[in-house]
Design a protein that fits this description.
The complex is a heterodimer of chains A (446) and B (336). Chain A is an alpha/beta fold. Chain A has helices spanning 125-134, 147-151, 175-182, 184-198, 212-222, 242-250, 270-282, 312-318, 359-362, 375-379, 386-394, 398-403, 414-418, 425-445; strands at 26-27, 33-37, 47-48, 55-56, 61-64, 73-74, 79-88, 94-102, 161-165, 202-208, 228-233, 265-269, 288-294, 302-307, 326-331, 338-339, 353-358. Chain A contains 14 helices and 17 strands. In chain A, the strands form 4 sheets. In chain A, strands 1-14-13-17-15-16 form a 6-stranded mixed beta sheet, with helices on both faces. Chain A has a 4-stranded antiparallel beta sheet with strand order 2-8-7-4, with no helix packed on it. In chain A, strands 11-10-9-12 form a 4-stranded parallel beta sheet, sandwiched between helices. In chain A, strand 13 and strand 14 form a beta hairpin. The longest helix of chain A has 21 residues, at 425-445. Chain B is an all-alpha fold and 336 residues long. In chain B, strands 1-2 form a two-stranded antiparallel sheet. In chain B, helix 1 packs antiparallel against helix 2 (42-67) and helix 1 (18-40) runs parallel beside helix 3. The radius of gyration of chain B is 21 Å and the shape is globular. The chains are: A alpha/beta (446), B mainly alpha (336). At the A-B interface, helix 6, strand 15, strand 16, helix 9 and helix 10 of A face helix 1 of B. The structure holds iron/sulfur cluster (2 copies). One iron/sulfur cluster (SF4) binds next to helix 10 of chain A.
């Protein structure tokens, strides 16, 4: 057997803990009230199109993403607009959101809700891109970059390969895994659509080897899809990072500060491929997604199909309640997720999972002096020196930090994870990245 | 809900800790400890215990009354320094000298810089060199091994030269290498590998040291970079000199199994605090230490060069860290 592909610099292997892996996706009822944030994408927020008191249907456009990097927002429920107000999002910021009181479940009639799988792709390249934009599709891996923008290849660049990210390298999360098992064919059609939208002949779907059933299932299906290859990958975090995935699958390195298109690649998540299928073939906007609810104290770790805007507390009702000993609740995985301050935060397009950790596991380890062991350096997938970067940030030496490529940090947390002295390296590096980013932007303005 | 813990990612931590690493090093030293006790008997045990206790004690005192920081003696680093210092001295060193050595190791070389992680030079090596310079006679009169089984145990220790020392002496007197190797005082390769030769406590058995090194490699306490670069450079250099003039320069195999080479390569040159942090830097450090060790051994005044070589390279560590950065992602654009 040939050795499995993976990226070459750094990486760690945290305990996988995929305790919800065997749980088939359950459809969650619409909530009684939905909070739909206007900014569910990287970039500018969308402009609301509804007012207090308006009646909305499922799938109706309620906010318009006008800016280049922005994205439309649709209602995920039917009912009456209660108000437009702010809500605390998963990162703890207050964001404007449309509050909808749910009445019934009435869908926009143009949406095809049947189970029939439509293989034929009728739209042209341009129509595909337009429709993806219209349907409010953003990257579902967590970064929520508007998907249509990725398909618009800048002048002078050429796309050669489409990479579909089915890695799901974060411990605990299983939403992509279950989606691949239950919606394999749709994902492959979605991949075909993205290939057409991008104008490439070849696509790879990278999946880590801890999901052999998904690899088998998709490989079988892919035989009838020309140009799509399934690539099993060695299990190593953070292989789901765009740059790491590209390195692992096509052995190219995206240069510092550049986008994947620089080396001819465009990366989309499997969840995005599925959403694209639904948008193009079924006329369905992005109004729901798969969310893993998991954690050792959770009595029923599950994978749910959830309407966007559903309060997170609602997920717990279905999963056996909020565990008594919950110490920390995280939106996303344990390596890159955000700790929540409130359970009234809604599920948004970028929510891949909700993870509950016990008090004893969520307490950070005691911080000791750096013993200069170099472990943080050897695990950094970007080839950086985390101990140095964190020191430079702490001492506010921004120029130096920029020279040491602090902006290349993908915030994967591997350095912090591995440090035997428990040093909060990423906390400082994040701070440094904010500062240096500001300095760079100001420079651009002059 | 305000009872939830909120902090930045990552929310999980690997199970490594400073303590685990340090005790891993201690476990790795067990084979060499056993060999030293086998060949030098209770003397070795006495030195090991006194050195360790003294190091831990000094660290505790300084931590409690001078630095007034958190207690660090539990992290195991003082114990590691204590054993390493013992490894670097002859088994018949007077007790008070080893205590002085422990003082220099901990108080001067480690704590005066602020403690673990802040010292630029390997503390045990500083202790060794201090003792060597202050008490040259006691530090170079080596008890000959008196194995517990089949030896002349319980006799007063007989002293004699180490193989390296013998070689240096004889070369000065004009003898050629082949003649020196034939001398009855030369222990021969098998004995040198096993540890049946004169020398400091922890350096006599290459096999025991390699066993410990394997353990550290498997547990990922150390990486291969420094040791491999060190050994290859040293072997190549002494090998070339041997090929050029076999009368004057001993075989590289002889050099590998005698003196403190293996101890230095696996337990001192891999000290995380005082050596480079990135793989490239580790390779450079290893090459430099290998070269310096060979040069000092072949042409220096001392028969041994490992301690000086590593200390000198410790001095270069900050520079190496600055000059040899890790390979950045995207630095060379590899094409499929
Ligand atoms: S991993 Fe931690 S202790 Fe080791 S060098 Fe990095 S910051 Fe220092
Ligand atoms: S410095 Fe950034 S990219 Fe490197 S390991 Fe740490 S978080 Fe990951």
């Amino acid at each position: 057997m040939s050795t499995l592909k993976t990226f070459s610099i750094g990486g760690v292997h945290p305990a996988e803990n995929k305790i919800s892996a065997g749980r088939a996706i359950e459809v969650l009822e619409p909530p009684k009230q939905a909070f739909i944030p206007l900014n569910q994408n990287l970039g500018a927020p969308a402009k609301p199109l509804v007012n207090k008191g308006d009646e909305v249907k499922v799938g109706q456009l309620i906010a318009n993403g006008e800016a280049f990097i922005s994205s439309n927002v649709h209602s995920s429920v039917s009912g009456k607009v209660l108000k437009i107000d702010t809500i605390t999002d998963t990162s703890g910021y207050k964001r404007p959101a449309v509050f909808i009181t749910v009445e019934g479940d009435e869908w926009d009639p143009s949406i095809d809700r049947t189970e029939t799988i439509i293989k034929d792709i009728k739209l042209s390249q341009k129509e595909i891109i337009d429709r993806i934009k219209e349907m409010g599709i953003v990257g579902l891996g967590g970064a929520t970059f508007p998907s249509h923008v990725k398909l618009m290849v800048p002048d002078g660049k050429k796309a050669e390969y489409l990479l579909i990210n089915g890695v799901e390298c974060e411990p605990y999360l299983t939403s992509d895994h279950q989606l691949m098992l239950s919606k394999g064919e749709e994902i492959l059609i979605g991949t075909k659509i993205l290939m057409k939208g991008l104008g490439v002949q070849k696509a790879f779907i990278g999946i880590e080897n801890n999901k052999p059933d998904a690899i088998r299932h998709l490989s079988g299906l892919a035989e009838s899809f020309e140009g799509i290859t399934i690539v099993p990958l060695k299990v190593k975090y953070p292989q789901g990072g765009e740059k790491q995935l590209i390195k692992a699958v096509i052995n190219r390195e995206v240069p510092s500060g550049k986008l994947p298109i620089e080396v001819g690649a465009v990366v989309h998540n499997v969840g995005t491929a599925f959403a694209v299928y639904e948008a193009i073939q079924k006329n369905k906007p992005l109004i729901e997604r798969v969310v893993t609810l998991t954690g050792k104290p959770v009595s029923r770790p599950s994978n749910f199909m959830v309407r966007i805007g559903t309060p997170i507390s609602q997920l717990f009702e279905k999963a056996g309640g909020l565990p008594e000993n919950a110490g920390k609740i995280i939106s996303g995985g344990p390596m890159m997720g955000k700790a929540l301050i409130s359970l009234e935060t809604p599920v948004v397009k970028g929510t891949s999972g909700i993870l509950v950790m016990e008090e004893k596991d969520s307490a950070r380890v005691e911080i000791k002096p750096c013993i200069r062991c170099g472990r943080c350096v050897s695990v950094c997938p970007m080839g950086l020196e985390p101990l140095l970067l964190s020191q430079l940030s702490k001492r506010e030496m921004w120029d130096k930090a920029e020279n040491e490529r602090i902006m290349d940090c993908i915030e994967c947390g591997s350095c912090h994870y591995i440090c035997p002295s428990g040093r909060p390296l990423l906390d400082y590096i994040r701070l440094g990245k904010n500062k240096v980013g500001q300095i760079i932007r100001n420079r651009g303005k002059k | 809900m305000n009872m939830l813990t909120v902090s930045g990612s990552p929310h999980v931590h690997g199970d490594d800790s400073v303590k685990k690493i340090m005790y891993g090093v201690v476990y790795a030293m067990i084979p060499a400890i056993l060999v030293s006790v086998y060949f030098f008997g209770l003397d070795a045990l006495k030195i090991l215990v006194i050195s360790s206790v003294a190091c831990i004690f000094f660290e505790w005192i300084v931590q409690k009354y001078i630095l007034k920081g958190p207690n660090t003696i539990n992290d195991g680093s003082a114990l590691v320094a204590g054993i390493l210092l013992a490894f670097n001295v002859p088994a018949n060193l007077p007790v008070w000298m080893i205590i002085v050595g422990a003082f220099v190791t901990i108080v001067v070389a480690k704590m005066s810089f602020g403690g673990l992680g802040k010292n630029p030079f390997n503390p045990a090596l500083v202790g060794r060199i201090f003792l060597l310079i202050s008490f040259p006679v006691q530090m170079t009169s080596w008890p000959l091994p008196k194995p517990v089984f089949g030896g002349t145990a319980l006799m007063d220790a007989v002293t004699g030269p180490t193989p390296l020392g013998l070689m240096k002496e004889q070369l000065k007197m004009g003898q050629s290498i082949p003649d020196i190797m034939q001398m009855p005082e030369m222990p021969g390769y098998i004995n040198e590998l096993m540890g049946n030769q004169g020398g400091s406590l922890g350096e006599i058995s290459a096999i025991a040291l390699i066993l410990g090194a394997l353990y550290m490699l498997i547990r990922k306490i150390i990486t291969w970079h420094t040791p491999v670069a060190y050994l290859l450079t040293f072997f190549a250099f002494t090998g070339i000199m041997h090929l050029i003039d076999p009368m004057q320069y001993a075989s590289p195999f002889f050099h590998l199994v005698t003196g403190g080479l293996m101890l230095g390569v696996f337990f001192m040159a891999t000290d995380m605090v005082t050596t480079p942090i990135a793989f490239r830097g580790m390779l450079i450090f290893g090459i430099g230490a290998g070269l310096l060790t060979a040069i000092i051994r072949l042409w220096g005044a001392y028969p041994e060069g490992v301690a000086f070589a590593i200390l000198i390279m410790n001095g270069f560590t900050p520079l190496i860290n600055r000059a040899f950065k890790p390979r950045r992602f995207g630095e060379k654009v590899a094409q499929a």
